[in-house]
Amino acid sequence: MQYEWGPNINLETETNTLAAQAYHKIRNDIISGVLEPGSKLQSERLKKQYSVGSSPLREALTQLAANGLVTSEGQKGFRVVDVSLKELGDITKLRLHLEVHGFKESIANGDVEWEVAVTGAYRRLVHAIEELQSGKSGSTRSWEDIHRGFHLSLVQGCGSPWLISFCHRLYEHFERYRRIFVEYTQISPKILEEHEALHQAAINRDADQAEKLLREHIILAARLTEKDARKHGIQDADAITSVVD
């Protein structure tokens, strides 16, 4: 099972191929915090940084704006979307509605191939954690990619392309907050236990347990991210507690 991220860019022409490449590179740098929240995206600098021309760059930035990662300022160009606890709370609330629903629908409608995909994603997650704990080069990025893949596998059998798309988009924005603010070199054993329990709930087709576990997992991740965001000076009034309790 594959997890395609980003816009549906036509790759038949060289320009659009370059636009797709630029989109994914810039998107990754926004989510990882390399391109900081609120920073202005200067065209000439981006063209040099990503080795791309004006036309594909413009297309990539337009798609990023459509996906909510950058804002268009008219004649002034583009800027990375800023961060706030209010937005983090909104993303969390929607994940609790849509991702949990998608997981339950996958349990009801997913076939054997869905089960195999979830199990494969879980096994890759275990391996990624082992590599991260060993300090292997590039393991943090690998962990993030595989962690995302596991969560998206849970909703992939729901039968609704729209629901899958929304869940992908929400996870992308939530991941941005975690990767910007949460610093870690090791994964707590509790995290692996939570993912193992989610995997078992999927395989056992236990919808009630799946709902309970995924809600708790999302809320815990949001609260930990809020805590670290506050340490970095993000102090607007809306807290995760106000949207999940």
Placed side by side, the strands forming the largest sheet appear as 1-3-2
Radius of gyration, in Å, reads: 18 Å
How much of the sequence is in beta strands? under 5%
The span between the termini is 35 Å
What is the overall shape? Answer: globular
The stretches of 5 or more residues where confidence is low (pLDDT under 50) are 1-14
* SSE pattern, N- to C-terminal: HEHHEEHHHHHHH
Helix content: 55-70%
Structural class: mainly alpha
Provide an overview of this structure.
- The chain is mainly alpha-helical and 245 residues long.
- It has ten helices and three strands, in the order H-E-H-H-E-E-H-H-H-H-H-H-H.
- The chain has helices at 14-32, 43-50, 54-66, 85-109, 112-134, 139-155, 161-181, 189-203, 207-231, 241-244; strands spanning 40-41, 70-72, 78-80.
- Strands 1-3-2 form a three-stranded antiparallel β-sheet.
- Strand 2 and strand 3 (78-80) form a beta hairpin.
- The radius of gyration is 18 Å and the shape is globular.
- The protein starts with 13 loop residues before the first helix and ends with a helix.
- 36% of the residues are buried.
- Mean pLDDT is 87; it is low at 1-14.
Produce the secondary structure layout:
Elements: H1 14-32, E1 40-41, H2 43-50, H3 54-66, E2 70-72, E3 78-80, H4 85-109, H5 112-134, H6 139-155, H7 161-181, H8 189-203, H9 207-231, H10 241-244
Antiparallel strand pairs: 1-3, 2-3
Note the main attributes of this structure.
single chain, 245 residues, 3-stranded antiparallel sheet
